[in-house]
Amino acid sequence: MKLTVKKVLIGLLWIGALFYLFEFVLHLFGLPILEHDKIFLPTHDRYIALFALTYGVLLLLISSNLNRYKTLFFITRTGIFLSFLSGIWISLQGGYSPLFNVVTLDKDLSVMGYLFLGWFLLLIMITYYYYKNGKTKQ
Question: 3-state SS of the chain?
Fold first, then answer.
C-alpha cells in the first residue's frame, strides 16, 4: 500500500473526527474523564456535544470526497480554528479552576490543546500541499 498525500489527509480527517465524536460522548453524558464531570452544566454541555457531533460528522463527510467538499472543508477548518481561539481565550482568563473545583483539568487541557494544535497545523500543511499539487493525482 502506497502512502499518498490524499491518504495522509484522510487519516488526519478521521483522527479529528474521532476526537470530536469522543468529545460528543464526553460532553453529552458529563463523563468523569479529565474532570469533565466536575464542570458539567447540562444545557451548556449539550450544546458543546452538538457542536462536537457536527464537526465530527463534517470531517467524516469531507474525507469521503475531498474535491467535492473543498469549500465545506475550508468553512469547517475556519470553524475549528475559531473554536481553538475560544479555548485559548478560556486559558488566558485563568482556565476552569477559578470557577470550578478542579485540580488537574487546566493542565490536562493544555496538553490536549498542544496536541490539537499539532494536528490542526499538520492538517493545514497537508491540505495546502494536496490542493496545490494536483488533487486528482494524489
Answer: CCCCHHHHHHHHHHHHHHHHHHHHHHHHHCCCCCCHHHHCCHHHHHHHHHHHHHHHHHHHHHHHCCCCCHHHHHHHHHHHHHHHHHHHHHHHCCCCCCCCCCCCHHHHHHHHHHHHHHHHHHHHHHHHHHHHCCCCCC
Q: What is the pLDDT along the chain (138 residues), one digit of tens a residue?
A: 688 999 999 999 999 999 999 989 988 887 766 666 666 777 888 898 999 999 999 999 999 999 999 999 999 999 999 998 888 887 777 766 666 666 666 566 677 778 889 999 999 999 999 999 865 554
**How long, in residues, is the chain?**
138
Is residue 6 within 8 A of residue 67, CB to CB? The reply is no
CA separation (Å) from 123 to 51, 63, 110, 120?
20, 12, 20, 5
